[in-house]
Amino acid sequence: MRCAIVHYHELALKGRNRDFFEQRLVRNIRSALKDLGARRVESLRSRIRVVLPDRTTDEAVIDRLTRVFGIANFSLAHGVPLDLAKPNLDELMTGIGEAVRRRTFESFRVTAKRADKRLPLTSMDVERAVGTYLCNLTGKKVNLTEPDLTVYVELLSREAYYSVEKVQGPGGMPVGVSGRVACLISGGIDSPVAAYRMMKRGCTAAFVHFSGRPLVSRASEEKVRELVQTLTVYQYRSRLHVVPFGEIQREIVAQAPAPYRVVLYRRLMVRIAGELARREQCWGLVTGDSLGQVASQTPENLSVIEEAAELPLLRPLIGMDKIEITDQAQRIGTFTTSIEPDQDCCSLFTPPHPSTKTRIDDIRRVERGFDIGALVKQGIENAELSEFTFPT
Predict the structure, then answer these.
(1) Is residue 174 part of a domain?
(2) With 70 as the cut, is the pLDDT of residue 347 above it?
(3) Which strands, in side-by-side order, build the sheet including 237-244?
(4) Residues 126 and 203 reside in one and the same domain
């Protein structure tokens, strides 16, 4: 039987709630592999077994499972029957022998794990037996510290599984175990990475994008749709609200002192996103802020912007620098899209000398000249909803 044996780490520490986390991971693996025909996904003694159809390639399975949060590592394995009372390793060793013949190596080791302690053979017994068999079969040497090849054996109650490669997963928590958050997403590098990092902690992300339309084209919106589709690979379903923000910005420019424009934009974005987040049943807002990166991200301005939020405002990138954020954007596949040129609403009417140490009293005094409730209502009523799925 050809299968993937999936291991997790952090989920094992969840005590009485462990079953909830494990079943969510099982569901997410099913979603990730749905179009590949892998429908048998089941929990087996602190690991998850995915039975793979013959037509599904190893490459396709690896590509999908390396993007399922909650997986620490996995092996593409083969299973053979095992009699708990009278274990016979002949079929297991024959299968391992066929697998290693296709590999080039000079040294190896065998690593066995016994999930059912009722099995009379210990892990060391199996390692010794399989190692001796492979030495005789291949003439290669055992190296327990730096082997060219590691053979993995997992012994359950009725089956034994063997593989010759272990693949690292992304770790983290299964998407969906930590509720929903609303992510403010621009066409830039930072905000998609912020959303990714919240997904890795188990959050399902809804997205809110503020477009400069009708004052600019839809270029930023198309970029954001592409970014959201890329991120949907990690959570399987996404919802994106696009808010035309150009007219609201124009009204701010007409009445507000130039140094305060950027902070006023951001406070209105937080209010509008907060209302959309409530409709999405989100418990928090997420931004791509990194401390000190631009004028709106100074300590003073971050505090003033956060004051407008009624939901918790989360900033998963706050202590990261641009190089770290860019490296992660490249790893998750959003960087190439993010650097495409566009007309971003944040660059509209940007003053040459924005305020970097804004005081909350000054902002409140300026905001008294606007009908903030009407502007928020305008943004919400004009928002456009798109939905995304993976696999498409």
Answers:
(1) no
(2) no
(3) 313-314, 284-286, 180-184, 204-211, 237-244, 384-389
(4) no
Q: Is the distance from CB of 279 to CB of 287 less than 8 angstroms?
A: no
pLDDT in tens, 55-87: 899 999 999 999 999 999 999 999 999 887 777
Q: CA Rg, the chain, in Å?
A: 27
Residue at a domain's end among 168, 195, 212: 168
For residue 295 the two structure tokens come to 């004028």
User: How far apart (Å, rounded) are the C-alpha atoms in residues 126 and 129?
Assistant: 5
**What span, in angstroms and rounded, lies between the C-alpha atoms of 53 and 55?**
6
Per the structure, the count of domains in the chain is 2
User: Is residue 173 included in any domain, yes or no?
Assistant: no
Shared domain for 129 and 216, answered yes or no, is no
Q: Answer whether residue 110 shows pLDDT above 90.
A: yes
Q: Which residue, 119, 136, 168, sits at the end of a domain?
A: 168
CA count, 13 A, side-chain hemisphere, 72: 10
Q: Within a 10 A sphere around the Cβ of 138, how many other Cβ atoms?
A: 16
Q: Are 156 and 82 in contact (CB under 8 A)?
A: yes
DSSP 317-383: TTT--HHHHHHHHHHHT-HHHHTS----GGGTT--SS--SS--HHHHHHHHTTS-HHHHHHHHHHT-
Rounded distance, CA 352 to CA 357, Å? Answer: 15
In terms of residue numbers, what domain contains 261? 180-389
Indicate yes or no: pTM above 0.85: yes
The predicted structure's pLDDT at residue 345: 59
pLDDT per position as a tens digit, 352-366: 788 899 999 999 999
